[in-house]
């Protein structure tokens, strides 16, 4: 959020690739006939143009058809479980996606066999949960099918992130906040998405006005379109008969910062959606103090809505984003590195890195042992990254401890490995917090007061000080929602901290580990420790 108006969030002008925004992928292009009309004095002009383009017949499946398919599910609030199940079962792709998701770690596993039918999912998770999940998947598929530019892909993933945060809030509050909260959060930027998709030329005009005039995003949109993005999204949702509670929740809020909120149950979802929208727009900062400051201001602004502090909401949004990233395969997402890593100083040799990944994938396909797979994996990381030490630890069931099994970079690997073992238990300290919250944690400076308060004393005494560790990262590995392993890396003051591209590669290695652990489920892990 920075110093900008809270509504002035999104893609900055200098980050927009105009050619990419307008360019359509081969095979999915939509050539719209005629230009869009707008009149700042009459919002109905632009609304009519956008609806006409949504209902156009240029595409094989019009946008309005897809929205109607979503709405069919959303409007089944009072239908029987059988009626809802039949609607889902009529769509084979949707049925498959729902069952894949409920059997993933987004949800608990209720049996070794998993959930095999929609009816069983409704009995175990509830009819409303499955209805909202199906609607959310339809929205996601609708956006994914049209995400033919990086801008639209970013908006698609952001909508999924908001939905995941909403679900996380529901879980932590002990039950649903209100009807279809996660769906409302997902659709919160519908108006802006529609303009970027259907009228990219006008979208760019709004971005230019926003930057050159120093305006908020909504003010710039109203100046050019005659209505704000939020108003456009609501009007389109009403036009397609979306449930009133969802349309109401998409309406932005206005209030004085610091006031204690007294919200009626009908308004709660609306304020929660606004909170989630702003929370997900907090940028990833260069240092944690900036992030905590932004989160603290947001918590103060919505004081009385949620009983969360700044650190809690940051952990909440990180947990949600980590879930979206870790289960990309389940949702059919292919994460793309948006920044080139060809000249990345954090990677020694990109060619060697890609070759190493190929060797790990080959080991998986050839059915090699998990020991061989993990050996190739950690060797590649050690050869291609500038980390001082890299460890892959495995959870030992008998003692419920995280035990280092593969170590690279330590001068005394046996001593280092012994010092790095720890028990898994509900306790303060970031190693257990990473497991409890299911998030990655990066400590950029072990000497900072804030960091020292969170780092366990055993780590500072046995690792950080003796080995001159400036910063470190921990990446828990879950299979079927159970902690099974952890990746640890560290660096000293002579080495730069990992950037986003390096972290993305680590997440890719973790995905390979999860695949290996899944393929070898039920087999005993080799006893030997590789150091």
Automatic annotation (TrEMBL):
Any one Pfam family here would be HDOD
The protein's matches in InterPro entries, at most eight in alphabetical order, are given as:
GAF-like_dom_sf, HDOD, RNase_Y/CdgJ
Give start and end of each HDOD domain: 60-256
Q: PROSITE patterns recorded for this chain?
A: HDOD
Name of the protein in question: HDOD domain-containing protein
Origin species: Desulfobacter latus
């Amino acid at each position: 959020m920075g110093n900008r108006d809270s509504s002035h969030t999104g893609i900055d002008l200098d980050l927009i690739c105009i050619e990419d925004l307008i360019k359509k992928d081969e095979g999915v292009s939509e050539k719209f006939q005629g230009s869009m009309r707008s009149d700042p004095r009459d919002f109905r002009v632009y609304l009519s143009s956008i609806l006409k383009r949504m209902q156009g017949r240029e595409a094989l499946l019009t946008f309005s058809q897809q929205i109607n398919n979503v709405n069919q599910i959303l409007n089944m609030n009072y239908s029987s479980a059988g009626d809802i199940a039949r609607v889902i079962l009529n769509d084979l792709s949707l049925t498959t996606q729902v069952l894949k998701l409920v059997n993933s770690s987004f949800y608990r596993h209720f049996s070794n066999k998993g959930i095999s039918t929609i009816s069983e999912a409704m009995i175990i998770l509830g009819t409303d949960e499955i209805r909202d999940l199906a609607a959310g998947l339809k929205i996601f598929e609708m956006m994914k099918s049209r995400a033919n530019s990086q801008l639209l892909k970013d908006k698609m993933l952001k909508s999924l992130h908001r939905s995941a945060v909403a679900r996380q809030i529901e879980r932590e509050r002990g039950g649903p906040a209100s009807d279809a909260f996660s769906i409302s959060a997902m659709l919160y930027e519908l108006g802006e998405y529609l303009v970027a998709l259907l009228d990219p030329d006008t979208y760019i005009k709004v971005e230019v006005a926003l930057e050159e005039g120093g305006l908020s995003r909504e003010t710039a949109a109203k100046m050019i379109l005659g209505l704000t993005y939020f108003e456009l999204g609501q009007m389109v949702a009403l036009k397609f008969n979306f449930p009133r509670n969802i349309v109401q929740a998409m309406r932005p809020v206005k209030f004085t910062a610091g006031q204690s909120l007294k919200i009626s149950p009908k308004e709660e979802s609306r304020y929660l959606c606004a909170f989630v929208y702003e929370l997900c727009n907090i940028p990833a900062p260069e240092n944690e103090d900036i992030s905590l400051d932004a989160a603290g201001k947001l918590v103060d602004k919505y004081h009385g809505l949620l009983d969360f502090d700044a650190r809690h909401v940051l952990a909440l949004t990180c947990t949600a984003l980590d879930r979206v990233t870790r289960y990309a395969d389940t949702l059919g997402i292919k994460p793309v590195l948006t920044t080139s890593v060809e000249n990345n100083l954090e990677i020694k040799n990109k060619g060697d890195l890609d070759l190493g990944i190929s060797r790990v994938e080959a080991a998986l396909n050839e059915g090699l042992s998990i020991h061989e797979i993990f050996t190739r994996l950690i060797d590649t990381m050690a050869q291609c990254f500038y980390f001082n030490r890299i460890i892959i630890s495995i959870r030992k069931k008998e003692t419920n401890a995280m035990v280092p099994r593969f170590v690279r970079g330590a001068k005394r690997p046996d001593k280092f490995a012994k010092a790095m073992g720890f028990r898994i238990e509900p306790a303060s300290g970031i190693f257990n917090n990473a497991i409890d919250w299911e998030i990655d944690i990066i400590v950029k400076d072990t000497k900072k007061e804030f960091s020292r308060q969170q780092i366990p004393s055993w780590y500072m005494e046995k690792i950080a000080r003796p080995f001159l560790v400036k910063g470190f990262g921990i990446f828990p590995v879950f299979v079927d929602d159970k902690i099974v392993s952890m990746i640890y890396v560290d660096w000293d003051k002579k080495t730069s901290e990992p950037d986003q591209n390096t972290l993305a590669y680590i997440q890719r290695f973790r995905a390979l580990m999860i695949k290996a652990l899944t393929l070898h489920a039920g087999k005993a892990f080799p006893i030997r420790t590789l150091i």
